[in-house]
Amino acid sequence: MSIVGGDIVSIITGGVLETIDGSGVAGGSETKLDKKLLPAVEKVIDKLGKNLLYRTYPNAESDNVSGEVIPGVPVDHYIKSLPPSEVNVKLADGDVIKVGDMVTGFAARNAVFVPEPDITVVIVDNVQWTIVKVSPVYSGERVCMYSIQLRRA
Q: Which of 98, 103, 111 has the alpha carbon at shortest distance from 82?
């Protein structure tokens, strides 16, 4: 079974969001879905996921003159994530989405870092991928997972 990025939300919930007061507007309050979806996302990723290596550079700095990123010392994190799958080629525009791009994601609760494009790299089966885009997926008021677009380095 293959799950693609944010589609996990639809699979688990049937695409239905419900607030605690039933108004349809979260208004800063935790929703019923937040309470249900966060553990459900973790359960699905734990069952179907793959351990991926995320290499972060917490001390990365930008050179003000050249504009280049100076990475600093890497820190490795192994995180159970959605198995990477190809982005739908119909969405490829040659710029933001390219043929060969992949998508993965991991649960946000208890995450030790937030993945960042151009700073965090992901290593899948000994192949290095750069992060092109990170999209937080909300279950209501909370981020339940990060959907991550990857491009081969």
A: 103
Residue 56 CA, chain-centre distance (Å), reads 14
Of the candidates 62, 24, 57, 46, the residue with the CA atom closest to the CA atom of residue 107:
46
What secondary structure letter does DSSP report for 115? Answer: -
The residues facing 134 across adjacent strands are 148
**Average pLDDT along the chain, 153 residues, taken 10 residues at a time:** 44 41 45 85 92 92 85 93 88 77 92 90 96 91 91 92
Collect all residues with Cβ–Cβ distance below 8 Å to 46 and sequence separation of at least 6.
80
Which amino acid, one-letter code, is at 129?
Answer: W
d(CA 13, CA 9) in angstroms, rounded, equals: 6
End-to-end CA distance of the chain: 26
Global model pTM greater than 0.85: no
